[in-house]
């Protein structure tokens, strides 16, 4: 996705070989026009799939997901992150280990929002080691819903998440795939969809 | 706002005299079409104000804010909630006491995103005791930005937040104002904008 890649090059910062900071337009300050284009790009990529719901994770997944929800004409559910859960009645839960923060969070979705008749598009802002996406997949499977695919705004292709999800048979579509952040230089994977 | 009030009556649940559950369309599952209409309604209410940025709070404020940002053609910043902050360099912070959770959270915004040239519309999903709105006001004032107004999706008018903010001279526009949740019955305040 051209506009997204330009934004990443113009305003993104490679903080280290693994950390890309995009807080100017995606995960702290949000560019609403870019979000509309991201929603359209997901619609284009998954146009052939039957999709009844979009599932994402608070907070940075919400803006791109709502724009995608508008394109597909379906509701968006955002999983909530909790440090711990004492009560889990009525909730589908899964655990996410954060390598950045070195802690495990529980993510939760009310079970009333997903059924075995749903076909779910999972959307998230970043894909690195795949921990968050894996937990979202787990929740969709617990609900007995189909997984239509996984839409990612920025994939760090040099980390293992994308490979693991694709090997597990999921259709993963990433709007920008980063090949490397070495030496503070942002390099994209060349691909057909570019 | 008629569509919002209908949604609240159809899908909202008065869990107690003070708690309104709207997780079907606003703060867990999101109705993207309703969010578009909410964005337009904020634009209509604040059409005469100069607005350069929208500030909200993760997570439920994000969807309505991004749609409003699209209408106003301005970026959206979402403040992050933290249990505690060890490092606050480069951050504007304020504290929010949650009556529901009986705990204090710090909310934080990178100071690079707000300047004394900004005129900020604060948006949030709920207004009850005004704790969150007050902390957002505090952050905008720390940045030296002007406050163009405060846009609220659902105000519980029987709680003190709206009165306090209006008495402090802020322009508060709420798209739905709840007069009472007593006996499980949702009643709106009658108003001109209805």
Give me the secondary-structure topology.
The structure is a homodimer of 194-residue chains.
Chain A: H1 2-11, E1 13-14, E2 20-21, E3 29-30, H2 32-45, E4 53-57, H3 62-72, E5 76-82, E6 91-98, E7 103-110, E8 119-127, H4 131-143, E9 146-156, H5 161-167, E10 172-180, E11 187-188
Parallel strand pairs in A: 4-5, 4-8, 8-9, 9-10
Antiparallel strand pairs in A: 1-2, 5-7, 6-7, 10-11
Could you explain the architecture of this structure?
- The structure is a homodimer of 194-residue chains.
- Chain A is 28% helix and 34% strand.
- In chain A, helix 2 (32-45) crosses helix 3 (62-72).
- The first copy, chain A, is globular and about 45 Å long.
- Chain A is of the alpha/beta class and 194 residues long.
- The first copy, chain A, has an 8-stranded mixed beta sheet with strand order 6-7-5-4-8-9-10-11, sandwiched between helices. A two-stranded antiparallel sheet of chain A has the order 1-2.
- The first copy, chain A, has helices at 2-11, 32-45, 62-72, 131-143, 161-167; strands spanning 13-14, 20-21, 29-30, 53-57, 76-82, 91-98, 103-110, 119-127, 146-156, 172-180, 187-188.
- Chain A starts with a helix and ends in a 6-residue tail after the last strand.
- Chains A and B meet through strand 3, helix 2, helix 3 and strand 5 of A and strand 3, helix 2, helix 3 and strand 5 of B.
- Strand 3 of chain A pairs antiparallel with strand 5 of chain B.
